[in-house]
Amino acid sequence: MRLLNWLFGAKPELTDAQAQRLARWRALPEVAIGSPMDASRYIVVDVETSGLNVNKDRLIAIGAVAVSNGRISLSDSLEIVLQQHRVSDKQNILIHGIGGTAQSEGVPPVDALLTFLEYVGRDPLIAFHVAFDQTMIGRAIREYLGFKLQHTWADLAYVAPALYPELARRCRSLDHWMANFGISNYARHSALADAVATAELLLALRPKLDAREVASFQGLRDMERERRRLTHPI
Which of 16, 22, 124, 130 is buried most, with the most CB atoms less than 10 Å from its CB? Predict the structure, then answer.
């Protein structure tokens, strides 16, 4: 039924409590992305999915951690597994480690996504290779909550090589950049652990960002767009 809703544009049915949660989130004021980085809260995000096909694979888990006032705030983090009616295959489970029981007993998707939105508020989002995370979260929100998520993202996969062009050829993945800066990851392919590692990469880039006088989320976005323009000229 939810797939039919998504295909034909029908709005999913929410309980009164769920509708009230969504309404409260919608009523939150917008955040100024030009505010100084050291006086802002950014949310670094990573996802785990049933595969890499953004058109047919499913969102399994979201991990997120806040970078507040220029520091990673581990106490301000979120890791949530969305309940799956069909457990992903064994090879997929070997990658992210979220077993069949954890998937089938996860948080119902509507409540999981509402929890994610409440955690994020209106604060800007950061990821490494944003397109995948943004698409998978956006698809799930459209399917289960019935609207298109319009949120501001920045992609460190473009910001990092813009700051270190001499490393751009050999540092293409998050693992490459982690190795370059000596960043460890306590559980690679755990959504939260990968989000924390991405947040550490953001902080590792700060000296170069400061040298370039990039002091806000808007500055990150401008740098990303310029790198995209250079990498993918029209």
Answer: 124
Residue 2 in tokens: 């939810």
Task: Identify the pLDDT of residue 1.
Answer: 44
Helix (H/G/I), strand (E/B), else coil: 171? coil
pTM for the predicted model, two decimal places: 0.92
Number of domains in the chain: 1
Q: Is residue 54 domain-resident?
A: yes
pLDDT above 90 (res 8): no
Question: Is 191:43 a contact under the CB 8 Å cutoff?
Answer: no
Domain assignment present for 181: yes
Is 17 inside a domain boundary? no
Upper half-sphere CA count for residue 61 (Cβ side, 13 Å)? 30
Q: 173-178 contacts: CB < 8 A, separation 24 or more?
A: 174/128, 174/129, 174/198, 174/201, 177/128, 177/201
CATH of residue 47's domain is 3.30.420.10
Average pLDDT, rounded, for the chain: 93
Q: What domain range is 197 assigned to?
A: 2-6+37-231
Instruction: Count the neighbouring beta carbons within 10 Å of the beta carbon of residue 32.
Output: 12
Q: Which amino acid is at 72?
A: I
Task: Determine the Cα angle at 94 with ends 91 and 99, to 5°.
Answer: 105
DSSP per-residue string spanning 30-62: PP-TTSBGGG-EEEEEEEEES-S-TTT--EEEE
pLDDT band at 95 (very low <50, low <70, confident <90, very high): confident
Q: What is the pLDDT of residue 10?
A: 58
Strand partners, 65: 44, 77
Q: Is the pLDDT of residue 90 over 70?
A: yes
